[in-house]
Write a structure and sequence with these properties.
Layout: E1 2-5, E2 8-13, E3 18-22, E4 27-41, E5 44-49, E6 53-56, E7 62-76, H1 78-85, E8 100-101, H2 106-113, H3 127-144, H4 149-152, H5 163-170, H6 177-183, H7 188-199, H8 203-221, H9 226-229, H10 238-249, H11 256-259
Antiparallel strand pairs: 1-2, 2-7, 3-7, 4-5, 4-6, 4-7, 6-8
């Protein structure tokens, strides 16, 4: 990972397959130079290849999976965007965030590729140039997709979402309860209280049950292997998954194929 400023970086991965579940605090503008990246949100999956440019909105719960890759990434922070939009006469209609794709767009590619020589600098990168580059990227985004204002100029924290709907769509994401609370517009204590009212059980018990049900379905109906399903079901490691599975169903996940 190389940074020329805290908001502009060259990201690379040369090791084996990597996957993580994350929700960013800032919008992430990504130009994929090489390799491929899969981004999965609750209701959609995107597969990006070399040359693709895409925006990951802040506060969007996603799974990012990739092999060897290299990319230029810009962090479009709330503070920077507030300053940019303070004199812009716009009206926005905030909606649920989703991935934006700009496949090999020449304006964006030119803007992002112009950063590559700066990563080899030994002297500090001038902050005024970095500001110009970030402003240029925002202006180009608005040119190629005018509706992007509804995402970039929405500075509200997540509002209070329907808890049942959100959790049914996102339970397979292995995130701390604090993050589930934040993304549904609740403090941790309010999240616990509302969850108990809606589901009549604790978040952790409900999440474990739902994830095990999903894993059982994938094993029995899709003939997948335990090593293939535990991450997709929301478990951190295979041993914990196997222990929880056997405790609930009375047999190990390896036995599912023999029982069906």
């Amino acid at each position: 990972m190389k940074y020329i400023t805290p908001d502009i970086k060259l990201s690379s991965q040369t090791e084996k397959h990597f996957s993580t579940e994350v929700s960013f605090d800032h919008h992430m503008l990504v130009w994929l130079i090489s390799g491929d990246t899969k981004v999965t949100q609750a209701d959609a999956t995107y597969l990006f290849k070399a040359g693709d440019i895409f925006l990951i909105p802040r506060n969007l719960l996603i799974t990012v999976s990739n092999h060897s890759y290299q990319s230029v990434v810009m962090h479009l922070t709330v503070d920077r965007l507030k300053k940019y939009y303070e004199n812009q006469p716009i009206t926005i209609s905030p909606d649920y965030p989703s991935i934006r794709q700009f496949t090999s767009h020449p304006l964006l590619q030119s803007c992002l590729s112009s950063l590559l020589p700066y990563f080899d600098m030994t002297d500090p990168f001038p902050l005024n140039i970095a500001d110009l580059k970030l402003t240029e990227a925002i202006s180009i985004l608005r040119t190629v997709d005018p509706s992007i204002d509804h995402t970039l100029a929405n500075f509200e924290d997540p509002y209070k979402l329907d808890l049942i709907d959100f959790m049914e769509k996102h339970y397979m994401f292995n995130m701390p309860l604090e993050k589930f609370g934040h993304l549904t517009g609740r403090s941790l204590s309010t999240f616990h209280r509302d969850f108990k009212k809606k589901f009549n059980t604790s978040p952790q018990k409900w999440l474990t049950r739902k994830r095990l049900e999903l894993a059982h379905y994938q094993l029995s109906e899709k003939n997948m292997k335990p090593a293939e399903v535990y991450l997709e079901s929301g478990f951190e490691d295979l041993s914990h998954f196997s222990f929880a599975f056997k405790k609930r169903y009375g047999y190990s996940p390896n036995k599912v194929g023999h029982l069906s």
